[in-house]
Amino acid sequence: MESTRLLAFSDAACNRCAGRESERMSEGDRGDVRFEAMTDSELLRAYLEMRERPPERIKLLLIHAEAIMEREEEL
Predict the structure, then answer these.
(1) Which of 24, 36, 61, 69 is the most exposed place for a label (fewest CB within 10 A)?
(2) pLDDT greater than 50 at residue 27
(3) How far apart are alpha carbons 61 and 75 in whole angstroms?
(4) What is the mean pLDDT of the chain?
(5) d(CA 22, CA 30)
(6) 65 with 6: CB under 8 angstroms?
(7) pLDDT exceeding 90 applies to what percent of the chain?
(8) Four-point Cα dihedral 63, 11, 24, 31, nearest 10
(9) Number of domains in the chain
(10) Buried-exposed string 48-73: b where 16+ CB fall within 10 A, e elsewhere
(11) Distance CA 44, CA 58 (A)
């Protein structure tokens, strides 16, 4: 249940953050980045980087998130 909430929050946060970033970026700045093509881990990393979290905190959060996602896949 907790992993489902984490993923739902991550999806919602990334979508909201990506929307804001898209509004701020010009068409040329966006390049070919497609959030739909990113993995959950890549989306979470992008969100945390956009929120300017420290690199060591991002690494720790990704380790825990990936462990949760792996357990979810096993079910």
Answers:
(1) 36
(2) no
(3) 22
(4) 76
(5) 7
(6) yes
(7) 40
(8) 70
(9) 1
(10) beeeeeeeeebeeeeeebeebbeeee
(11) 9
Residue of higher predicted confidence among 70 and 75: 70
Query: What b/e string do you get for 1-10 counting C-beta neighbours within 10 Å, with b at 16 or more?
Result: eebeebbeeb
State whether the Cα torsion 2-41-35-72 is positive or negative.
negative
Q: Which amino acid is at 10?
A: S
Measured over all CA atoms, what is the biggest interatomic distance in the chain, rounded to whole angstroms?
Answer: 42
Q: Can you give the residue range of the structural domain that contains 35?
A: 2-74
39: which 2 tokens?
């993995």
